[in-house]
Here is the input.
Amino acid sequence: MSRILVTAIPQLTEAHRGRIRAAAERQGLEALFFERDGDALPALAGAEILFAQSADLAAAAPALRWQCTPSAGVDHFSPETFAASGAVLTNSSGAYGVTIAEHVILVILQLLRRQPEYADIIARRQWRRDLAIRSIHGSRALLLGTGDIGRETARRLRGFAPASVTGMNRSGRNPENLFDRIIPEGELDAALPEADLVILSLPGTAETVHVLDRRRLSRLPDGALLVNVGRGAAVDQAALEAELRAGRLYAALDVFEREPIPADASLWQCPNLLITPHAAGNMTLPYTLDRIVELFLQDLENYGAGRPLERRVDLRRGY
Here is the structure.
């Protein structure tokens, strides 16, 4: 009976499929590729490995031993997701830092340099160039989350000579010494009044829901800019909208408490807000997709050799 690896990631190129097929054959696996989740369902009865985004596929794979999701976030999975009780999950954390960090720098510069307003001025065929702008140079940056995205963002921020770059995490470690200091969440209240730029790249867990609630948002200094590229639930969206409408804060949001944003939501017309449709970290950048495949192949080699999988997710913790 064949040992089967099922892949359901439509963005993969023929070159990606060739690499996966060759690596699978070296491990004694037959690689099957599908464009749509529904097309993969008949092959799941005997699937040993699943390389796919959908949690629904895991629920239909009784022989599954390992699923790798091409996403970094895993909040759509739970221990109850899997039909196979011994199955493990890995993610693709480490593939998205470059593209999301570039997005963070993009939206910060757009807002600090008033580009949405200048775009509106140009659209009206007016010639005006007197809007007061601000700079990353000399700003105090606070990054909530120091994983791949936080580290790549800190590297890029450093090139603009900020006054300080502070990170918040649970481990207390300062990865690659990229941060001037690391704080635990218990010190967040004290750090917020000293932050001009706040960047969130936190995973979606019970502990991160509304980590920036109404009270904490009120502690930010006037004119502070908040960027969220992690999970929408990390910010109290209604409280943030109130601060934006009051003209006190600025924000660039790529993630939201409800996605898509309802067409009649007031957020669409909110001032001081730059909206992107959860596009900072998708698989449209070739480098990102290449990296996702590379990370999967690394763990496929680990799997075949009986070594621990490097990107195994703790489903109880959510990351």
